């Protein structure tokens, strides 16, 4: 079985920059009007820090997660950004049949230290750190976890995001804004669909030029050397979104790398198909149809076979509309493809919310 670090290289950094007027604005979890209401522009930067098995660590190649660091029940402060991120990601995972992540305190520390690093270095979102910069604790997510006692033989990776806004949001709303960004990223939905069992969450807040910035992210890891299955042979592959999911942003305007063949106005909510580590997933067709509209929306398809970024795994495929969807609208999705050479079809309906990521 190939290593998870080889399977899924997670390009997991998004920075939404929004100057909000009234209730409008991109990336805000309190956007109640969608596009055209005081939006003055969004943009983003990211890199492809992916983490890798091994690297600097305080252990000796152990494959055992330290006892007592994985929590049976989450210990995040109620109402905090961290609690919202943990709860929201797990709710989305479980609704679509993915097993819930468990909190791990070493991964929490690694995520929190990296959030502080981003704040200390100008508020720029990045998965990787530069040695010698203020707050440096390790280049990759794997390195930062290893430095805190994470076993170097156990895969870990980081996913980071940020929001700059003039709107006063609660900590929970800040946290949700980061989840929103991951939930509609062509290369970022893997934060929700990854074949991992453990998570750590950390955020840090800053301000500049009248804007408040929330920088933060997650550390994701397996429970041991091998990745546990996320799906059984009877229901593989899984999709995200899936039947009944509501409230996802209808439009994404910033991701690095930018998905191919998208409009200048952004693109619509993607759909990720995911199998277990070692599976080979293909998509031959993908369409969406909005409720009350007979127009069939063709979707771009990215698999490991045609991906030029190296970020799409063999067990993964992503389909996405080249242009934004409509807010507060139900969409019927139809997919056909194969998993390990066996044909599958998936048909379901999800409903967009009124946010832009």
Please, could you describe this protein's structure?
- The protein has 357 residues and is of the alpha+beta class.
- It has helices at 4-7, 81-95, 105-120, 141-146, 171-183, 190-193; strands spanning 13-17, 102-103, 156-165, 198-208, 211-221, 238-240, 246-248, 271-274, 281-290, 296-303, 316-321, 330-339, 342-352.
- It has an eight-stranded mixed sheet. A five-stranded mixed sheet has the order 1-3-5-4-2.
- α2 packs parallel to α5 (171-183).
- The longest helix has 16 residues, at 105-120.
The average pLDDT score comes to: 85
Radius of gyration: 19 Å
Note the quaternary state here. single chain
The parts where pLDDT drops under 50 for at least 5 residues are: 1-57
In whole angstroms, the N-to-C terminal distance is 35 Å
Question: What form results from the Cα inertia axes?
Answer: globular
Record the strand order, biggest sheet: 6-8-11-10-9-12-13-7
Give the helix/strand layout.
Blueprint: H1 4-7, E1 13-17, H2 81-95, E2 102-103, H3 105-120, H4 141-146, E3 156-165, H5 171-183, H6 190-193, E4 198-208, E5 211-221, E6 238-240, E7 246-248, E8 271-274, E9 281-290, E10 296-303, E11 316-321, E12 330-339, E13 342-352
Parallel strand pairs: 1-3, 2-4, 7-13
Antiparallel strand pairs: 3-5, 4-5, 6-8, 8-11, 9-10, 9-12, 10-11, 12-13
Helix pairs in contact: 2-5
């Amino acid at each position: 079985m190939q290593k998870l670090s080889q399977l899924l290289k997670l390009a997991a950094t998004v920075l939404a920059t929004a100057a909000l007027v009234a209730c409008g604005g991109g990336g805000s979890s309190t956007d109640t009007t969608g596009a055209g209401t005081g939006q003055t522009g969004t943009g983003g930067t990211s890199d492809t820090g992916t983490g890798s098995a091994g690297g600097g660590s305080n252990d000796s190649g152990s494959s055992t997660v330290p006892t007592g660091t994985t929590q049976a029940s989450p210990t995040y402060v109620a109402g905090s950004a961290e609690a919202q991120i943990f709860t929201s990601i797990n709710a989305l995972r479980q609704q679509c049949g993915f097993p819930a992540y468990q909190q791990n305190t070493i991964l929490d520390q690694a995520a929190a230290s990296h959030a502080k690093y981003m704040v200390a270095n100008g508020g720029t979102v990045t998965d990787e750190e530069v040695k010698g910069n203020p707050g440096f604790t390790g280049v990759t997510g794997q390195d930062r976890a290893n430095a805190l006692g994470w076993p170097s033989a156990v895969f870990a990776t980081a996913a980071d995001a940020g929001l700059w806004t003039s709107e006063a949001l609660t900590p929970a709303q800040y946290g949700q804004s980061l989840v929103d960004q991951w939930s509609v990223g062509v290369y970022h939905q893997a934060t929700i669909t990854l074949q991992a069992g453990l998570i750590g969450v950390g955020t840090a807040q800053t301000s500049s030029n009248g804007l408040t910035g929330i920088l933060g992210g997650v550390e994701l890891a397996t429970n041991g050397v091998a990745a546990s299955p996320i799906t059984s042979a009877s229901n593989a592959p899984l999709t995200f979104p899936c039947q009944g999911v509501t409230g996802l942003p209808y439009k994404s305007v910033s991701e690095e790398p930018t998905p191919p063949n998208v409009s200048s106005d952004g693109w619509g909510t993607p759909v990720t198909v995911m199998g277990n580590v070692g599976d080979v997933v293909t998509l031959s067709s993908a369409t969406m149809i909005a409720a009350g509209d007979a127009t069939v929306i063709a979707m771009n398809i990215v698999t490991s076979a045609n991906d030029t970024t190296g970020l799409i795994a063999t067990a993964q495929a992503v389909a996405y509309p080249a242009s934004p969807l409509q807010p507060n609208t139900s969409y019927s999705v139809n997919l056909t493809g194969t998993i390990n050479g066996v044909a599958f079809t998936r048909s379901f309906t999800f409903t967009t919310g009124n946010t832009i990521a």
